[in-house]
# Entry
Amino acid sequence: MIEAGEAISGLQRCGLSQVTTRTWTFEEDVAAYALGGWGAIGVWLQKLEERHMGAFRFPSSCLSDDVVDLAAATLQAASLPVSHVVCAGLITDPDKAELLERVRHLRFALDAARRFQAACLIVIPGRLLGQPYQAAFDNACRVLADVLDELPNDSVRIAIEPVTDVDFANTTGRALDLVERLDHPALGVYLDTYHGWHEQDLYEQIARATGRIHGIHVADGRPDSRERLVPGDGQIDLDAILAATRAAGYRGTFDLELLGDEIWRIPPLDLLTTCAHRMQQLSLAHDVPTAGRR
# Structure
C-alpha cells in the first residue's frame, strides 16, 4: 500500500488530477490523496481502463457496472469528493459511425460521473478533421444539445475544456462560444492555467465566463518548455489567474494536473509533498468562506 506521509492542512480547496501520479493505481491514488489531506480527486477514466496508465490516449471504453461501482465505493469509503472526471468528447467527427460511438461513450461517462458524485464531467469536443470550423461547431452543438436535454435533475454538469493541442474549441473564448450558443445551466467551462496562460485576452474571457466556470486545472509552465511544472517552478502568474476566477464568482477547487516526462521522473510521494505545500500557499491566498462555494 502506498504511504501518503503526513497530511498537510489547508488543502481543503485543492484537488489532484490522477494523471499526476500516473504510475499508481486508482485505489492507490484514492488512499494517498485522502491521507494526504487533499480536498478532491479528478478521476481519469483512462486509469480505470488500464489501472497503470501509459501514454495519454482518449478514453473509449464503456466500462462495466462492476468497475464503476467498485470505483464509486472506493471513493465513498475514503470520503474523497470528485471535483471532475476526465474525459469524454470527440463529438465533432463527421463520420456517422464514429460519432455514434463517441456519443455512446459520452452518455456512459456522464452516468459514471454521476455515480462518482462528481461535480462535473470534462468534455474535449474534438478536432476539425478537415471540416470548416462552423461545421464542426454545429456538430458539437447538436450532440451537446441532445445530451443536455436528456440530463436528469440530479446529473453532473458538463465542462468544456479548451486544449491548445487541438484545432477546435482550443481557447477559452472558443469554448465559451459553445457554452453561450447552448445556454444551458449545466454547461460551462473548465479552465486550465497551462493551456490558457498564453491567451492575450485570458482575463477578459474569464470575466466573460462568470457563473459558468465549473473548475480549473492548475500547473505552471515556461514559454520554452512543453512540460507542466510544479506551481512556482515556472513563469505563469497563477495568483493573477486564480484571483480572476474568484472575481468571476468561482468557489470550487483548484485542481493540480501535472503530466510529462520531467514530472513523472519524480517519485510520486516526493512530488506530492512539494505540490501540497505550493498548492496550500495558493489556496490560502485565494480562499473564500465555505458558505456559497460551488
